[in-house]
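Researcher: Please predict.
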Amino acid sequence: MALHIGSVAPDFTQESTEGPIHFHEWIGDKWAILFSHPKDFTPVCTTELGTVARLKGEFDKRNIKAIGVSVDDVPSHKKWVGDIEETQHTKMNFPILGDGDKKVAKLYDMIHPEWNDTLTVRSVFVIDNNKKIRLTLTYPASTGRNFQEILRAIDSLQLTDKYSVATPADWKSGEDCIIVPSVQDPEVIKQKFPKGYKALKPYLRMTPDPSK
C-alpha cells in the first residue's frame, strides 16, 4: 500500500547502532524524522549524517528524534560511524537502522527500481507523535538534503497544528502567517488573532506569527 501524508507510519522492529528499535515504541510521545541513505561509506551520506548529528539541539527543541537507515547491516554502520565522526567533526548521537533484509526499505517504498533495484533513494519521512506521516521528501542519490528546509517545514507543521494558520512561500519561524480560509467569523478572528491582520484579498489575510 502506498504511503501518503496522513498515513500511519508502518511499525517495525529492526536492529540499529543503538540496539533493537521497536519503531512506534521508540517514537513514544515525540515526533520523528526517518531518513534513508543509499549505502554506507558513501560521500554524500557521510555529510548528511554529520549534519543531523550537529543539529541535535535544533531537533530537540522541536521534540523530534532522528533515525537513519540504509540497506547495509549494523556492523557496517558501526565501522562507518568512525569516518563520519572524523570527517564531520561531530559525535553521532542518533541510531542508524541496519536493513540488510530491506524490510524497512520495502515498508517505506525507499527502493525505486527505475533508479536502482537494490539501493535506497534519499527518502525523508516526518512522523508526528500520533505516528502519522506529516511530510515526505525524496532526493536522488547525487543530491544531499537541505536539513534547514526540513527544520523549516517542521516549524510550519507544528505551528499550523496549534493555530488556525497556514504558512506562505519561503516562510520562516517568526514571520507573518496566513489565516486559514475556514476562519471567517469576525469575533473568532479577534479572539484567535489579537495582534490583528492585514487583508491583501478576502482570501489572503496576513497575521503575525501567533506563537511569538
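Model: The chain has two domains: 13-146, 163-207.
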